[in-house]
Structure formats: structure tokens, C-alpha cells
Amino acid sequence: MGLRSDGTVVATGDNEYGQCNVGNWTDIIQVAAGCVHTVGLKSDGTVVAVGSNISGQCNIGNWTDVIQVAPGAFHTVGLKSDGGVVAVGNNDDGECNVGDWADVAYVAAGQSCTLGIKSDGTLLALGWMHHGQCNVAAWTDIIQVAAGWGHTAGLRDDGTVVAVGYNHAGQCYVGNWTDIIQVAAGDFHTVGLKSNGTVVAVGRNYDGDCNVGSWTDITQVSAGGLHTVGLRSDGTVVAVGHDYFGECNVGDWTDIMQVAAGGLHTVGFKSNGRVVAVGDNSHKQCDVSDWRNIVQVGAGSGSGHTVGLKKYGDAVAVGDNAAGQCNVALWTDITQVAAGAIHTVGLKGDGTVIAAGIEIELAKWRL
Questions:
Q1: Is residue 130 part of a domain?
Q2: CA distance 334 to 349
Q3: Can you tell me the distance from the alpha carbon of 65 to that of 322, in angstroms, rounded to the nearest whole number?
Q4: 156: left (phi over 0), alpha (psi -120 to 50) or beta
Q5: pLDDT for 19
Q6: Can you give the CATH number for the domain in which 282 is found?
Q7: Which has the closest alpha carbon to 304: 248, 346, 360, 264?
Q8: What is the pTM of this model?
Q9: β-bridge pairing 353-357 and 9-12
């Protein structure tokens, strides 16, 4: 789905539930996609939603004074201007029990959980906690978070890190980390970039995913499903971990500005606007050699797709398109792109959002 600068919305991809029927939406300032529904926030603080309503996740017609929306798989969360929160939809795990939340500055929704960051930097969490990944209520002073398969990591403003959730591989053992400026979470490992350019990692190391102790001069890290990628200050790239598909074959890359690690592939964009990619290419997700004028890249973690943002605000995408996640050819005025497992999202210059893929259900919105 995509949000245009004039407040209208476009959407492509799976439309089994009418989630892409957004052609008459107007005055939209934010859009977001759940598993099988789509939510739009209007400039007047009201909310619209389309798609599957099997759990009541689209029952937002009476919401007012909302400033942010966040859809989960089968529930929808709204942040109000007074710092309160509202939620509708599936509540089997208590993910909608937000009635007593206050002083919230940001909300996020997972498959069956709801997260809130308070103005003082503390976190709130409700919902599915089979692995305890939502047990963040005691966290404070958080400035960045990263989510893995079943664990959550948070970076504090003092450079320390906290983590909760699935810890079978030790991916939550970050209590002694200091001087961290960025965290990234893979499926079963956690990576931290330090202020001096070195990197630390804990968790699954079966394929050497965490063998980053010798890295120096790193300016960005990205954690893939089973591998880790680091961008150096000189524009070269290092990678460790699962390499069955050659996803770590980045040793000859130069002039790289950003890296993105997908499930089984790795993408980098160069200072000249060109893009390079290695790894699994079963869906042609690495066929990016003819891309030009790229300013940002994203790598999907699902079957495999790659998205690129061009300097003129349009987007390109290659790879698995079974859910329409690569249908971005008509997007314009884009300032940022992100690739999920089976969907693609674009942020527009006017603050609206568009998306394509299986989670795009915008078609019935009425703004």
C-alpha cells in the first residue's frame, strides 16, 4: 500500500478480503497493515479500516483524537492525543487490554501482542508471551528496539541493552553490554554496534552468526535470519554466519552506503546509486545489477524479495511476488522503504504510507 502526498492511498497485492480497495480514501496521514486488514489514520484523528474483520479488528468507526495506529495480526491499536490507547480485535492473549495505559508516546503491535513506549522511556507490553518477549514493563530510557523471532532487545540512552524472550541460544544475554549505539535482532541472535566501531553478538552461533569479535570501524549492522552483516566506515562490508547460498560473499564490495540482511540474502547500495546483492536467488531477489540512482535498500526475510528507493522518489523491487509485494512500480514521492517477510511498505514525503503484499487491505476505507 502507498500513501500519496495528497492524502489518497494506493494498494496492490493479495486482495482476497478487499484489503486493497482504498481508491476513494482521502485525508490520510498514516497507513499500516495487519495480517489480513489495513488501517488508515485521517487528518481529523478518526480512523478507517478494511479487510478481514473476523476478530473485530476493523471496528474502529467510533475512534477519535487518534494520532497513530498500529495493526497486529488480528487486532488494531490506536494512540490518542492525550497519551491514552485504544484497541479492538482478537484478545485471546489480552493484547487489547490497554484501557489503563496513559502517558504513551508510541505504540506497536505484533502478531498477538501490543507494545507502548511511554514519554519517560519505559515500555508497556501485553499479549502473547509464550517466550516472555513482551515482558518489558520494567524497561526505562529506551531509544531503540529490535525484534527477533521470539525475543525483544532494547537499547537504553546510556548505551546499555536489555533483552527478553526466547533465550534457548542465549540471545538475551546482553546484560553486560555497554557503549552500544545500535542493536539488531536475527531469528535467534542479537547484535550490538559499539560507539568505537566494534561489534558484539550473542545467541545462535551454529554457523558463526556471532563471530564478530574481530570487526572494527563498523558504522551499521544488520542481522539476517541466520547471518550478520556489518558496514565499515570505508564502505566495505563484512559478513558472518550461514552462507549456504553465498549470502556472506561480500568481501569484494566497496563504496557501500547501507546494508540490509534478508532471510537468506544480503543487499547493499553503493555511493553511485547502484545496488549489489548476494545469496539465495531462487526468486530473482538478487537481480539488481541494472538498478540505478538508489538511495536506500531493503531485504525481505520471507521467501525473498528486494526493494530499492530511487533518488527521485520512485521504487523498484525484485524477487518473490506471490503476494504482490513487488508491485511498487507506480509508487511516487517515496522517502523510505522497508521490506517485510511478504510485504513492502513505503513512506511518502507527506508522511503518508503505502504498501504492497499480503497484508494490504485498504480497499474499503472511507476517509
A1: yes
A2: 6
A3: 37
A4: beta
A5: 62
A6: 2.130.10.30
A7: 264
A8: 0.59
A9: parallel
Instruction: Give dist(CA 161, CA 180) in Å, integer.
Output: 7
- For residue range 285-336, what is the model confidence (pLDDT) as tens digits? 888 888 988 889 888 766 688 889 998 999 999 998 877 888 898 899 988 8
Q: How far apart are CA 348 and CA 51, in angstroms?
A: 23
Residue 321 placed within a domain: yes
Q: Which residues of 63-100 are buried (b: 16+ CB within 10 A; e: fewer)?
A: beebbbbbbbbbbbbbbbeeebbbbbbbbebebbebee
Residue 227 lies in domain: 2-357
Query: Which parts of the chain fold into alpha helices (H)?
Result: none
| Residues forming beta bridges with residue 26, ordered by sequence position | none
Q: Write the pLDDT tens digit of every residue in 124-168.
A: 888 766 777 656 667 777 777 666 667 778 888 899 998 888 888
Q: Is 327 helix (H, G, I), strand (E, B) or coil?
A: coil
Using an 8 Å Cβ cutoff, are 17 and 334 in contact?
A: no
Q: Which residues contact 92 (CB under 8 A, 6 or more apart)?
A: 112
> Has residue 364 been placed in a domain?
no
First to last CA, the chain: 16
**What ranges make up the beta strands (E) of 90-149?**
104-109, 113-118, 123-127, 142-147
Domain for residue 328, yes or no?
A: yes
C-alpha cell read off for 334: 517515496
* DSSP assignment of 178-210: -SEEEEEE-SSEEEEEETTS-EEEEE--TTSTT
Overall number of domains in the chain: 1
Percent of the chain with pLDDT over 90: 35
**Strand 227-232 and strand 218-223: pairing?**
antiparallel
Distance CA 190, CA 172 (A): 7
